[in-house]
Amino acid sequence: MVSPGGQQILSYTGDVSTPEACTQIAERAMDAFGGLTILVNNAGILGELGRIEDVAWEDWAQVIAVNVFGPALLCRAVIPQMRHQGYGKIINVSGGGATKPLAGMSAYAASKAALVRLTENLALELSGAGVDVNAIAPGALNTRLLDEMLAAGPARLGDEFYEGALRQRETGGNSLEYAAALSVFLASAASDGISGRLISAVWDDWASLAGRRTELAAGDVYTLRRIVPADRGLSW
């Protein structure tokens, strides 16, 4: 398929929770385009919602398999090529579950936090290789995941979270264009040298980060870190 903009588009169906499918996806892309410069890990599921003791273990584990194993497997498949060519961009789509607990969504929240830490680890391992690895928080989007949350109902999500999901549906949620624009920035040469960060498409001034590479590299801004008493003005 060729898009209106002239780009060649190929599609391939595969289960990203399996090593075989991830290897085939990467190989087909590299064979078709003669290499691979950008990987966006966007596949994700919520799974069955509810308290951890009420959710079938197989369903809970499948969320981890898709949301964590999938990105890890695809990264493993493409990183050798990116190392060889000395350049690459990996973008992992995380979300609010990475930075705060979500009642009734333990597998999803745990998977998104794990994805951010995986991002930081890979960025460290690829330091000096010309390959940047970042995670994005796209915002509260009105997608099939919101439909699944609403279908679960307040009994599984809790009244407060469910009411928030209802408000999101009514107001339209955040714009998909924000997340798309941030992804384009992180996939472009404008973001070269920015790596190992979790960046919000909605709340962070990411368009200005091209001029702040040195500051970012020297600190822990846009990363997941433990809060200690001194961080909150406490002496114990």
Protein described:
- The chain is an alpha/beta fold.
- The protein has a single domain, classed as NAD(P)-binding Rossmann-like Domain (Rossmann fold), CATH 3.40.50.720.
- Helix content is 46%, strand content 8%.
- It contains 8 helices and 4 strands.
- The protein has helices at 19-33, 57-85, 106-125, 144-152, 154-157, 159-171, 176-187, 213-218, and strands spanning 38-41, 88-93, 131-137, 198-200.
- A 4-stranded parallel sheet has the order 1-2-3-4, sandwiched between helices.
- Helix 3 (106-125) links the parallel strand 2 and strand 3 (131-137).
- Helix 1 (19-33) runs parallel beside helix 2 (57-85) and helix 2 (57-85) runs parallel beside helix 3.
- The termini are far apart.
- The model has no long low-confidence stretch (mean pLDDT 90).
